Amino acid sequence: MKLLPLVLAAAFGMLSAAQAEDGYQLWLRYQPLEKPALAGYRGVGTEVVSASHSATAKVTADELVRGLSGLLAKRIAAGDSIRTGGAVLFGTPTNSPTIASLKLPLENLGPEGYVIRSLTVKGKKITVIAGNSDIGALYGAFRFLKVIQTRAPADHLDIVSAPAVKLRLLDHWDNLDGTIERGYAGASIFNWWTLPEHVSPRLVDYARANASIGINGAVVINVNASALILTRDYIAKVAAIADTLRPYGIKVYLSARFSAPIEIGRLPTADPLDPAVRAWWKNKADEIYHAIPDFGGFLVKANSEGQPGPQDYGRSHADGANMLADALAPHGGVVMWRAFVYSHEVPDDRIKQAYSEFKPFDGKFRDNVIVQVKNGPLDFQPREPFSALFGATPATNTGLEVQITKEYLGFNTHLVYLGPLWQEVMQSDTYAKGPSSTVAKVIDGSLFGSKLTLMAGVSNIGADRNWCGSIFDQANWYAFGRLAWDPNASAGDIANDWVKLTFNNNPALTKPVVGLMMGSREIAVDYMTPLGLAHQMGTSGHYGPGPWVDDAGRPDWNPVYYARADRSGIGFDRTATGSNAVAQYFPAVADKFSKLETTPENLLLWFHHVPWSYRVASGRTLWDELVSRYTDGEAKVHAMAGTWAKLKPLIDAERFDVTADDLTIQERDAKLWRDASIAYFQSVSGLPLPAGMKAPAHSLSYYKALSWPYAPGQGGPGRKILPPPEDDTQH
Amino acid sequence: MKLLPLVLAAAFGMLSAAQAEDGYQLWLRYQPLEKPALAGYRGVGTEVVSASHSATAKVTADELVRGLSGLLAKRIAAGDSIRTGGAVLFGTPTNSPTIASLKLPLENLGPEGYVIRSLTVKGKKITVIAGNSDIGALYGAFRFLKVIQTRAPADHLDIVSAPAVKLRLLDHWDNLDGTIERGYAGASIFNWWTLPEHVSPRLVDYARANASIGINGAVVINVNASALILTRDYIAKVAAIADTLRPYGIKVYLSARFSAPIEIGRLPTADPLDPAVRAWWKNKADEIYHAIPDFGGFLVKANSEGQPGPQDYGRSHADGANMLADALAPHGGVVMWRAFVYSHEVPDDRIKQAYSEFKPFDGKFRDNVIVQVKNGPLDFQPREPFSALFGATPATNTGLEVQITKEYLGFNTHLVYLGPLWQEVMQSDTYAKGPSSTVAKVIDGSLFGSKLTLMAGVSNIGADRNWCGSIFDQANWYAFGRLAWDPNASAGDIANDWVKLTFNNNPALTKPVVGLMMGSREIAVDYMTPLGLAHQMGTSGHYGPGPWVDDAGRPDWNPVYYARADRSGIGFDRTATGSNAVAQYFPAVADKFSKLETTPENLLLWFHHVPWSYRVASGRTLWDELVSRYTDGEAKVHAMAGTWAKLKPLIDAERFDVTADDLTIQERDAKLWRDASIAYFQSVSGLPLPAGMKAPAHSLSYYKALSWPYAPGQGGPGRKILPPPEDDTQH
C-alpha cells in the first residue's frame, strides 16, 4: 500500500507532482494510513453529513472528504443525511435538528468552540462535530482529521475545545511591491498587482492551513505601512482577499499609516484631535466596511522608528488610538496599537520605554483598542525576560506579539523551534495579582477579566513552495496557532503533533525529531547570545555576529550598547545601581532580578554587569562559562546534523535533503558565531581561553570584515547595497 | 482511463498535488494518452536502452522513462541492452557499438544534432536516438517524446536535426537580492542566499525545460550587474548552479561589471589598456574556470544607461571587449558585448547610435567576441523595424537579443504571443548581399560565414509556480528556444506544438487557441502603438499609456520624443529631411523606408512625420485610421476573451481561470490604452472623432493623473516609491 501512490503516480506521469514532497501541503498531507493502522478506523468516517449550505459548511465538507479520502484511501461521499454507520455529521444546533436534539455541552464554548463526540443516532454509530457556528464546526473537523492523522483512537471520541484568546492573528510584514520585511521565504503571497481581477488559488490553501490551527485573522500589510493600501483601488484588492478567506473564518485587518490623511487625503495635518482628520478616518472606515462588511480593524505602529504618530502633534498614544477606535467602533472593528515605541532621543535604557509610555495611560483607551506588546522589552531576541507591561495595565486590553519569522534566530536556515520560547513567556509569572499571575492569564484575559484578547504572530510565510523557507519553520507557524488557541498548551505536545502530521507516525522518527526541535532554541541561544546577552547580531541584516558593532545610526542600535563589555566584566546593569529597569516589574519579580544570585543564569547579563571572575553555578568563572556556552552551542549543532543524517531512511528525499543542507549552513554559522564572539570578547576581557578550548579559526579583524550584503528580509523599496571589497566576503 | 488519475489521486490524498494544473510542469506534462491514441503506439517505447553511463545519459534515460511511463500509462524500464521489440536505444557511435554499426548520417550534425530512426536490429523493431555527443542524444530524446505527446506516428521515424545557432541563451535580469528587473513572475529562481550549500531542486526542472527546447546557456545575473558576483563567495555559488545545469548541456555565463577591478579589485582604474586591469581580469577568468571548467563567458553592458565602460577611459568598445576576450580565450570563453548603447549627451536620434558606435569597429573584435544586437534599434517595442546593424558588420560576430519578458507588452497579464514578432525580425531582408539576405541568415552565420553565432532572450522566468507569471507566457519561453534552434521555424507551427503539449490534442481546443496566439501580437500593437508608433508607455514602469509624458530624465526617454505629434501631423521623420536614420540601411531598404508610399503602413510613423489628413491604404485619413486602429485593438481583446470563455469545457479549471482573469485585465487595459491615447492625440490634432467612434470614457486630465506605483519589474535595490494622492489612483 505504501508504495502504491508512487507507482500509480509514475504510471500517470505525475511523478514530479506526486513524488515531490516539496512541503507545500504542510501538516495537511492526508497520506493513506498504513494497513495495520487502517484496521483501527473501520466504521469511522464512512461518509460526511451536513445540513448546512453555508460557504463555511461547504469548505468543511470538502476538507473532510479530502482528508478522509486520503487517509482511508477510498472515495468518501458527502450528503445531507445519515445513511450509514460511521458517518461524520457536522453542524450547529441551528442548522441540524439532529445536533440540536443531542443537547451537547455547547453553552460555554462561544462562537468558535466545538464538541466532537462518538455516539449512536437512530441505531447508527456516528461521529458528531458540533459548534455554535459553522466556523466552530470547521475547527472541529480539522481536529477530527488530526485524530486520524496522528493515529489516535476515533471510536469513542469526546472532545470539547474552545479558544482561550479571541483574536489569533498573523501580522504580515509584506510590502506592496511584493517584498517582505524580515521575510525569508520568497516574495509575498499577496499578488497585489493582479488583484482584484485575479486571486491566487494559493490563498485558499493559506486559509485552510490557518483555519486548521485556529488562526482567525490576518493583517495583510507591513506595520511600516504605505498609505496607498487605504486608497480605493487597494481597498478593492483587499476585499477580494477578504472574500477568499471569509469561509474559513479569517478576517482581514490592515496596517494604518498615521499620516495617511496628509499623504492620500490631502489634509494639512494628521492631528488626531483635528475634526477634519477625525472625519477623514471615519469616512475611510465607512468606505472600507462598505467593501468588507466583516473587516477586522487597524494595526498601528506609531511614533516608533521614524513612523508618524500622534506625538508629532503633541498628542498621546491614547489620543491616536482612540480616534481610530471611534472611527471603527460603529462597525465593530478594533485597533491594535503597538507598544513597540522608542523616541528619537536615546533614553537611558531603551527597553524601559514601552512601559514608561503606556503605563500612565492605563484605562485611557477605548474598549475596542488593544495594546499589542512584544513578548520581551527589546525586540524578539533569542532570549529576553517577559515585558514588564504584562500585568502592569489591568484596565487596558493587552495583547501579545511574537515573531514567527526568525529575524534574530538565523532566518530560515537555522533549525530553531520557537515553541519553548513562547511557552517560557506564557508561563512567566508577573505577580500582578500575586503568585501564578502568568503572562498566559494576561493574554487570555482571565487575570483582569479583559473582553478583548489578542495573540499576534509576525508571519514567516512567503511564496516559496514550502511556504516558510524551510520545512521546520512550518512548525513555528503551526505552534503559533496552537498556542494562540491555548496559551497553556505544551510546546512538546505541539511539536509531537507537528512531526506526525508533517512527516509520519513512526516513533523511530518522531522521538528524535521532537528531541531536535525541543533542544534547538537553547542551542541557538548558546551559540548566539548566551547567559542573557542580547542584540549581538550585525546591524540591519541581524544575521551574523557583530558584537563589536558600535557605529550604527544610534547608540541603542549597537550591540556594544547591550553587552557593555569592558575589562572588568560584561552585562547591562538594570538594577537600582544602573538603569533600574527591574523596578518596572512587580516587587517579587523585581527582587529576584535585582540580586545577582537570584537572577536566573540565562538572564544574568541582561540584568547585571558581572565581573569576568564571577563564579557561576557550574563553578566556572563567568569568562570560562561564556566561552564554554558558545562552544557547547556549536558542538550541539553538529550533533543535530548528525541526528538528522541518521533519519534519512525514514524521510522522503526532498525534505530530508533541504533540511540537511540547512543544517550544514547552521553548522557553518554556529562555528562563526562561536569563533567571532570569543575573538571579540577576548579582545575586551584580555583573558586566556579556558584549558582545552579551541582558539577561533581567524583573527578578530577577519570576523569584523565579514558582511552579508543582500541578506534577505531587508525588503521594501529604498534599500541600496554596495558590494564590499573582495577580501571582505570570505565567509 | 482519462478520469483514473484523479480518482486515484483522490484516493491517495494527493488531490492538491495531482489535481492542480498549476502550470509548473510546462510543456513536459506527459499525461496518459487517450485510449484510441494509445493503440497507435503499441510496440513503441517498451523499454529504454543506453550503453553510456555519463551524467547526461543518466538524465536522458530518466526523462525517457518518466515521459514514456506517463504517456503510455505503464512502468517503462531502463537497461543497457535491447531485450524487446519497441526498445528505445539512445547514445553515440562512441558509446554504443550498435549505433556505430548503423552508420547514421551524423557527420554534419555537430555536437548537438541528432538522428531519430525506426529500424530493425537483430530482428527487433526499435527506435534509435543518436547524436555525436550525449547532449545530442538528450535533445533527440525530448524530440522523440514530443512525437508521442503531439500524437504523431512513431513507427516509421526518420528525423534529422541540428541547431542553426551555436549559442542559444537565456539572459536573466535577476539581481542578487532576489528581485528581477523587468520580471513579472515573482522572485528569482536563483537562491543566492542559500547557495552553494543548498541548490533548489527547481533548478533541475529549469534545466529539463531548457534542454527540451535546445537552450544551451544561461546568463544568471542582470546586465546591470553587481561586481559582487565576481567575488570568491559568489563564484562558489555560481559553480553549484553550473554543476546542476551541466548534465543538461547548459553552460553558465555571467554579466561582468566593467568597473569591477575598482569595486572589488581595489585598483584605481578599470582602463582596458592598463596592464594591472588586464592582469586582474585574466586572474579573475582563471579563478572562475578553476571553479567552473566549462564556464561560458561574460555578457557586458558598457557605456549604456550609466553603466561603466571603456569610453570612461577614452577607449573604444573594441578595446573593452577584446580585453575581456583575451582573458577568456585561453579557456575557450566568449564575450557577448551589447550594442544597446546611447551616450549621456542626447543625440539627434537615439536609434542611430548603436549603428554609429559599432559599424566603424567592424573587424576590430576578437574571434571570441560577439556583438549582441537587439532586434530593433530602439528597445523591444511591440513593433520596430529590424536593427540596421544586422548585415552591416560582415567581419564581426553578430548575435540577436530579443526580450521574452514583456516589458513593453503588458507584462504577464496581457496575452501576447511573441513568435510572430520574432519571425518578422528573422525574415526581414537586410539586402546586405542582395535580396534574401535575411536577418535569420545573419544570426545563423550563413550570410557571412561566421563561426560564432548567438540568439539571446531576456528571460521571463521567476519563482511563480507557473514559472512565467501566466500560462501563455510559457509559450514565449518555448518559442524562443525553438526559434534559436531554427531561426526559420514557423511561429504558427511552434504555437500549435506548444498548445498540444501544454493543454491537449483536441482540435476543438488547439485550433482556436493557436488562432488567439497568432493574432495576439498585432492586436497589442493596435491598442498600444499602431502604425509604427513606439515607446508611448508611461515612463519607468512601461505598463500603461503615457503618450503625453515629456518630463522624463532626458528627452529621448519621453514618449513625446518618439511620436512627435503636433497640429500638422504625427510621426518621426527619419528620412533625409529628418534624422536620416534610413541611411543606415542598405540602399534597397533605405529607398523603401524613405518614401511614404513604399513604407509598410505598420512602420509609417516610425519613419515619417505624416499629416493628419494623409490618406492611408484603407482610404481613411491618418487621423481616422489611428483612431480606428486603437478601437479595433480594444474590440479584438474583447473577442479574445470571448473565444477563451467558450473553451472552458476543454481546459482544466485552474489554468482556465487564471487565463480568464488575465484576459479581464487585458480588456480593462486595452480600453484604457485606446481611450487615453485617443484623448491625448485628439488634444494635439484638434480633430473630431470619426463618425460612430466612441469618445474616451474620461477626460485627458483623468488619464494623465493615473499612475502605477509598485508596478512589478522595476526590481533591484535602490528604488523608492511614493504613493500618489488618492485621486490619482482610480484606474
Polypeptide structure, described:
The structure is a homodimer of 731-residue chains. With 731 residues, chain A is of the alpha/beta class. Chain A folds into 3 domains: 4-161, Chitobiase, domain 2 (2-Layer Sandwich); 167-502, Glycosidases (TIM Barrel, Alpha-Beta Barrel); 526-572 and 609-705, Alpha-glucuronidase, C-terminal domain (Alpha-d-glucuronidase, C-terminal Domain). The first copy, chain A, contains 23 helices and 16 strands. Chain A has helices at 4-11, 15-19, 35-39, 55-72, 97-101, 134-149, 202-212, 232-245, 260-263, 275-291, 317-328, 353-358, 419-426, 439-443, 473-485, 491-502, 507-528, 559-563, 587-594, 604-607, 622-646, 653-685, 700-705, and strands at residues 47-50, 77-79, 87-91, 114-121, 124-131, 158-161, 167-171, 217-219, 251-255, 297-300, 334-338, 369-374, 398-403, 454-458, 569-570, 610-611. Chain A has an 8-stranded parallel β-barrel. Chain A has a 6-stranded mixed sheet with strand order 2-1-3-5-4-6. Chains A and B meet through α1, α2, α4, α8 and α22 of A and α1, α2, α4, α8 and α22 of B.
